[in-house]
Amino acid sequence: MATTLVLYFLASGTSKRMAQTIANLTRADLHEIKAQAPYTQADLNWHDPQSRTSIEQHEHHGRIACVNDFPALDHYDTIIIGHPIWWGIPPRLVANAIDQLPLDGKTLATFATLGGSGYQRSQSYVQRVIDQTHHQVTIIPGTVLSNLR
């Protein structure tokens, strides 16, 4: 039985490919973080200030409902969360997943899929979410992955 769980949120498929590779390399279980209201291509149009993602990402304390079908975390020691970077931070959906998960006593690592910027702002955001939820976790600094094969 795996002691690591890789959770991922995908918009275009890149995060899923990266998550699958990491899960294979670490012999981890894999699970997708899904929005209760799935995103459409129009929702993902970051050039449109009225698109769903543009509006959601600018709601600084917003949370986007995710499907609560996460596996029980009892036997996992390490949780790895993969996500795209939207407006410099993880999608608000990822914050909601962190809120919902019983992460106390776990090690949390994150990775992002993006080509254009670093991960410092995203890492700070994840740390803030952890601090707000009062989870007692060990956080391994995240990174941006691209073209992982």
Automatic annotation (TrEMBL):
InterPro entries: Flavodoxin/NO_synth, Flavoprotein-like_sf. It holds the Pfam family Flavodoxin_4. The gene is fldA. Residues 4-130 form the Flavodoxin-like domain. One of its GO terms (molecular function) is oxidoreductase activity, acting on NAD(P)H. This is Flavodoxin. It comes from the Bacteria.
